[in-house]
Amino acid sequence: MIKYIFSFGWLDQGTTWILKNLGVDMGSRFGGSVHFFIYDVIKILILLSIMVFAISYIRSYFSVEKTKKILEKMGGLRAHIAASLLGIVTPFCSCSSVPLFIGFIEGGIPLGVTFSFLITSPIVNEAAFVILLGTFGLKIAGYYVLAGVVLGILGGYLIHILKLERYVEEYVYEIKMGESQIRVLSRRERLEFAKSNVREIVGRIWKYLLIGIGIGALIHGWAPEEILSEYAGPKNPLAVLFATIIAIPLYSNAMGTIPIAEALINKGVGMGTALAFMMATTALSLPEMILLRKVIKPKLIGVFTGITGMGIVAVGYLFNMII
After folding, report:
1. What is the Cα–Cα distance from 288 to 85, expressed in whole angstroms?
2. What interhelical angle do 64-72 and 97-106 show, nearest 10?
3. From CA 189, how far away is CA 57, in angstroms rounded?
4. What pTM, to 2 d.p., does this model score?
5. Is 73 helix (H, G, I), strand (E, B) or coil?
6. In the predicted model, what is the mean pLDDT of residues 55-67?
7. What are the C-alpha distances in Å from 233 to residues 263, 272, 316?
8. For residues 93 and 103, what is the distance between their CA atoms, to the nearest angstrom?
9. Where does the sequence pass through the membrane (predicted)?
10. 181 falls in which pLDDT band (50, 70, 90)?
11. Where are the domains of the chain?
């Protein structure tokens, strides 16, 4: 019974029953698309609300100031690991990247460690994890989180080895932001923070969800399975590379691209190809590059994009081989 509830079998059957009673032919492309859309919208919103609340409560213990304090005390590879892991529980949108970058550099945190955080943070967050969990199951969601963390660690460490500090704009090192007081929240304040985060995140991304699920529904019902399987399937050696390159200039978030990835995978596209597209869209979005240009020079942006892009391609090929 518990498995039935959490696998959303009740929602699948309920959606089918309602559509049949409305006269929708469930064997048609239209019926399949409508079922996909309704089922995914309800399922994702339920999972999203529950998990955002739970993770936001945990996140209330990791403010930007506290994250910076933790990283200031570490060094070497250990700092990269910590930065990447903290990126999971302290996800910030791309609009936060510039002040976050300045705050970390001003706090004396090495450049590579800062990038370990910035790589992992947009790729792995509670919203992406819960939608992956509900869509593909615990195994795929776990692999995705692990890949995002490893990508952040290795990418940031490589930037550290290359010693690219000279490509940070000079004024960043001259900024003195001062000490920020770390406020200790009560249990009630943490619960209020979690509730407000649910309202904020769901309110901010529901449009992306509807668009992404709508595109996924169209692909699910109408996209030619044979063509997608042939050109974007796991047997095509260039599929992952093309998916990553196409995704880089796009602007979306994981929540909007996961339903598209689900529909593509159902049509025969390789798991790694679809997830590489999703990672590249979130980690290398054009708005984030524009914002980062305010604090780092074009060559460092190019290195960051190249390292992260190659890492995503490698993850995509690995996923296609093992899943």
Report:
1. 21
2. 40
3. 10
4. 0.71
5. coil
6. 71
7. 13, 9, 12
8. 15
9. 36-58, 79-105, 111-134, 141-162, 205-224, 236-254, 274-293, 300-319
10. low
11. 2-176+189-322
